Amino acid sequence: xxxxxxxxxxxxxxxxxxxxxxxxxxxxxxxxxxxxxxxxxxxxxxxxxxxxxxxxxxxxxxxxxxxxxxxxxxxxxxxxxxxxxxxxxxxxxxxxxxxxxxxxxxxxxxxxxxxxxxxxxxxxxxxxxxxxxxxxxxxxxxxxxxxxxxxxxxxxxxxxxxxxxxxxxxxxxxxxxxxxxxxxxxxxxxxxxxxxxxxxxxxxxxxxxxxxxxxxxxxxxxxxxxxxxxxxxxxxxxxxxxxxxxxxxxxxxxxxxxxxxxxxxxxxxxxxxxxxxxxxxxxx
Length: 284
Description:
Elements: H1 2-11, E1 16-17, H2 23-31, E2 35-40, E3 43-48, H3 51-61, H4 76-83, E4 97-100, E5 105-109, E6 112-116, E7 124-126, E8 132-133, E9 139-143, H5 146-150, H6 156-165, E10 172-175, H7 183-188, E11 195-198, H8 203-217, E12 222-224, H9 230-234, H10 239-249, H11 257-269
Parallel strand pairs: 9-10, 9-11, 11-12
Antiparallel strand pairs: 1-3, 2-3, 4-7, 4-10, 5-6, 5-8
């Protein structure tokens, strides 16, 4: 129960030593920007930036984490009454992932036409993802930040210019890893389409790409979106976030030349830059 107790402490707003946390879960929480790093000499402790956001992340990851909320129930019997299962089944109630587009994409769901063309101000959620298929010439763009994902029309010119410059199809489908689960990655592994990852330009964002996507999809089928102006943008980035991430991700490396150059540039500038900076009003 040591890990359970440490997570409960984080959700209560307390500081927790890194040695008390599962290393894989610690990496995920840091990569998602959910933890503050507090250094005292060589000793590091962690605290949740936003306990509600962390709780949502953990529950989306695995509903067994709802057991950490047991103190909100008067008794185990009440939990059973409200959930129908005192132990909580291991099946997530909302599998799948969101999809978006700025122009119509002719997809299929269960063999039936399922055009993705949401009205501006909305997006779709594919829950039965195992039956979701798309045309082979569509580039799948994974967007880490939900603000960027919601506002893709304001980034249309940015995406179109990048795709053209890198010889990629201009037919695109945008996907999001929210809620954070492996469903999106598992779906990507079943299709042959190219995957383009659009995340924050920091060490944690690169880690998400390398260990959540690239190692499963391979070098030929996936790439990291690196804008031409990222060097100048990094100069106005966040030193604080770089410092928070550096100790944990300082040894990250890539055999992809362009991505390794980005890593070196981040270390050179000692800055991190948010992808929200590419949301602008130059859309068509």
